[in-house]
């Protein structure tokens, strides 16, 4: 079996990912932004040292 036949067969068998990569990125971004907002809200009333 030639290399091109192996590559074509692998490409045909490839399926879509279970979770879209942009969805994972959007969830991670939302989580990090919410943690940043919590940090700013928590430290907002404190005096500088």
Spell the H/E element sequence: HH
Large-scale geometry: rod-shaped
**Broad structural category:** mainly alpha
Mean pLDDT: 84
Give helix % range: 55-70%
* Helix segment tally: 2
Keywords: Membrane, Transmembrane, Transmembrane helix
Characterize the structure shown.
The chain crosses the membrane at residues 20-42. Keywords: Membrane, Transmembrane, Transmembrane helix. The protein is an all-alpha fold. The chain contains 2 helices and no strands.
Write the layout of secondary structure elements.
Blueprint: H1 3-13, H2 21-43
Features:
49 residues, mainly alpha, membrane
Question: Could you give a short description of this structure?
Answer:
With 49 residues, the chain is mainly α. The chain is built from 2 helices and no strands.
